[in-house]
Design goal:
The relative contact order is 0.16. The chain contains 16 helices and 21 strands. Strand 11 (214-218), helix 6 (226-240) and strand 12 (243-246) form a beta-alpha-beta unit. It has helices spanning 100-111, 124-132, 146-154, 163-178, 198-210, 226-240, 259-272, 297-300, 304-312, 314-326, 357-364, 368-379, 393-401, 421-436, 442-449, 451-456; strands at residues 3-10, 19-26, 29-34, 42-45, 50-53, 55-57, 80-85, 139-142, 144-145, 183-187, 214-218, 243-246, 277-281, 286-290, 342-345, 385-389, 405-407, 473-476, 497-502, 505-509, 512-513.
Amino acid sequence: MDILVKNALIVDGSGRSAYKADVAVADGRIVDIGSIDAECETVIDADGKYLFPGFIDSHSHTDVGIFDPEWNHQRIVQGITTEITGHCGPSPAPNCPENLQLLRRIYFELTGTGREFDWPYHDFAGWLKAVGEQKLYENYSFFVGHGTIRANVMGGSKSPATDEEIERMKALLDESLSQGARGMSFGLSFFPGAYADYRELRELAKVVKKHGGIIAAHRRGEGGNACEAVEEMLSIARDTGVRMNISHVKAVGRSNWGKAALILEMIEKGIGEGLDLSLGAYPYTGGYTQLFQIFPISVWGEGPKAMSAQFSDPVKRKEIVDRLTDGTYDEIVMTDGGADGIQIIQCPDARFDRKTLGMISRETGELPAECAIRLIEKFGAERTMMFQFIQNRAEMESVITYPRTMIISDGTPSSGHGHPRYMGAFSEVLDHFVKESKMLSLEEAVKKMTSMPAERYGLTGRGLIAKGAHADMVIVDWDNFKCMCTYDEPLGPSQGIDYVFLNGKIAARGGVSTLAGVGEIV
């Protein structure tokens, strides 16, 4: 026996009521649960504190931080022990020399982190080998990105794929899944996934189905076309039988509030007809991305140089500003608060950092759209970020509390000021939805973070406090627990997370990583 946790109040992840017991750990596994009196090298008296399974973040972008010595151990202190990454269309592999620059732009543009890493591999096996050679501070599993598959074969083409191109994509996807990818992620509002037609997506989904994998679906839109975008995914699941997860479910934009309920009805109806569906959501009304995404993909999709060329053309610039101002391009008018619901983040000029576009517009006397262009021109397209408040809080809460929803972060590490979801998503659910508002029971919330994603993604032996399970566990002092991750101070960490165990080792204690580095590729 390596570790004995005494007098814990166990919330085991299954949804059953909490119960008091001791837990014994040996060789990375839970070997006994009950009243245990035995000698042990390390005895921890939980003294009635809660013991949860380690949290599983089934949708993050933390793959970008695996090789970074600052980022790679940040989230273990929040109780997150397993991550599934490679979402929203790009992944570091596969890659090819002829399109490498484009592939890197697609990947790092989505993450927007400010720090890049080398890709000394070309196939998915090489990517997993590179990851496996690192000291891992959590467990990881990976999707291969559809956008990456497409760009490998078609470069930056916006044309529909030919039969021959689809066959090449299918072969590359088949290889990646055979080499260990858990499934494929769509990023259909991003470049280049936005240009894929239904036929391309359906044919690739058949390959995922053949491997027993799952598709993580970032859809074509979450605003005016939110329901249509979900219906497209349900059609793919219906036509192919593939397992499908509807990623970060929400309805964005004031004119679209109310559609989240319709989306949940669509998913429920699909499950009722036999489709293999699931969904995830994060507990925040504000999104986080590059400022340039207030413009349509026709402006930014081909990269910063092409976007700059459009801004440099006076006629085109005026057209862009006019259309964003009159609502033809709706990213400002749909935001809660309009231009005052878009907050500039990571701006190196303190005169503008943390201010809203509305504030900057009033200070400069220029239209918000023109202010956005000037900020991008001066400080760079890829590093000028924003918080965009686009969800209705009550509607977001209804999605989180929907019984089938898994909790995700959609989080990305940041070299500047990031989103609180990266560190705080799971703590926010526990603090706000359980402790403060009691919208969820503690047992319900923990299940959404542990056994539900473990079962959905085939993470055998994880997500439960059970005999024989991997000893990924979290001790929480509930009386003193509080999520400390906010839009102003996003990194926290949360109070009251006393211990985190990863594969049977103490990985964090008192909010500090032990740097044990015993994570695995799962």
